Structures are given as structure tokens and as C-alpha cells.
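It is worth pausing here to work through a concrete case rather than discussing structure prediction in the abstract. The textbook approach is simple: state the sequence, then state the predicted structure, then interpret. We follow exactly that order.
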Amino acid sequence: MKMKRLFSFMAAGTIAMTMFTPPAFAAENSTISKQEQQKMINVAHRGASGHAPENTMAAFQKGFEMKADYIEIDVQMTEDGELIIIHDTTVDRTTNGTGQVSDFTLEEIRQLDAGSWFSEEYAGEKIPTFEEVLDAFRGKAGILIELKAPELYPGMEEKVAEALKERNMDQTNNGKIIIQSFNHESMKKSKELLPQIPHGVLAGVTWADVTDEQLAEFATYADYFNPNMNIVTEELVDRVHEVDMEIYPYTSRSQEEANRLFAMNVDGIITDYTEHVYYHPVKNN
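Step two, the predicted structure:
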């Protein structure tokens, strides 16, 4: 077993200061053992995005308060080369602006309202910078960093690595940072820049027939194979584990979906609703 699995468990134990009590209905309907629940890593997708506007500081804070092991963030770059947190390559869906992310300077993008689309309660929420998120949550929660469309942003991998190194967040003993992307070549490059940081390859539904050879190749530079939950089977989970990688499927949005993933022995669940992923601090044996 690689050290990365120990890091995941350490992250859960470090973050957990109190027991999170799952909803009664979830416990009654679940057949998942306590031992399996203890192994589960809870990843707040774009923050607790079922409860607050995605990829905002409000969503990340909510995920932390709900005892998520990791908050997941999407990194892109502005026209003037600043790293910011937003999912889509346009600002249209989650702000009051229109246009490509790469056409905005940081100053311009900070003028946008990234909360009102979700509810008036969050009017005025801003698109945060990568460094703001690192500074706010370092030592408090794990951060699962997705490099979003890095092919559009030359130099993104170097900028992310520089920001982490400046904060001493690139060390093996940190155990709180994972980097992932759908762009697998980008992950190879990032792994060279940050050899001690665990990396993951994201896989959409087109990877349903991933071969053992492909998984073995991923394992030469990645520690996680994180697929769309709709292609996850017990057989796939077993094959990922056979090459000593872990598997965090995305994106669970219901208790039933979380329970199905639990039953297939995945290592973590990326979810909009962290309350669906039962939280039990890992005991040191």
C-alpha cells in the first residue's frame, strides 16, 4: 500500500474534532458497516455546493463546517495570468457576467457577482483566487485541486506548483493536497513539478471500458483514478485497487447514490451534499 492511503486516513483523523452524526433515515436505510464508513473520504464538490454557490468561499467554509475531509476546487487562469476558482470556462452560468474566463483580468473578474444565481442570501459572493483558498484552508481541510482545461492556460501547472511551494504545501508529510485533471498529460507534467504530491486522473463516461493496461499506465504517475460515478462497478474498483490506486467517484447528489458507492468499496466520494457521506473519525490502531 502506498503512503498516499495513509495520508488520506491522516487527513480524516486530523480534520475530525467532533463526530458528525448522519441523518437517522440514512442510517436506517444503509447496510454499510461502520468499518467501511470509517474508510470513506468525504470530498465536498466545489465546496458544499448543494448548500451554497459552488466554488465560492461560502461553499468552501460550509464544506469545512460540515466536516468534509477535502474541499474540491476548480482552477483556471485570468487574462493576466492569475489563478482563480471557477468551474466553467465561461462566467455565464455562475455569475452576472458573460464571456470566457480567459478574457477577464483578475480585477474585472473580481467585480462579478458569483452568488446571486444560487440565492439572494449569497449576493455579492466573489470568485476567489487560488491563493485565497490555500491561505484560508491550509491546515484546516484537505484541498482536492482540479486543473480545469489546462490546455487553455499555458503555464498553469507551474503557477500552481509555485503557489504550493511558497506555502510549504508540496511536502509528503502534508497529506492534505491532491491534484487532478481530465487532462492526463497535464497530470504527468504536474507530477514532475510536484513529485511528493498525490495526483489523480479524472475519467468521464467514455472511460467505462478502461483496460488493465491503461490503469497500470496511469499508476506510473497518478495515485487516484477518479471516474464518473455512472461507470463505477465493483469490478472496476477492484482493478483500480490492484494497481495500488484509490478511487473517488464523482458526483454524488443523493443518499441512494452515496449508498451505492459505499457498497462498492470506493475509497472516497465526491459529493455536493457532504451529509450523505457518513463521517466517522478514523481510529488509530
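Step three, interpretation. The chain has one domain: 3-87+128-270. The longest strand covers residues 70-77.
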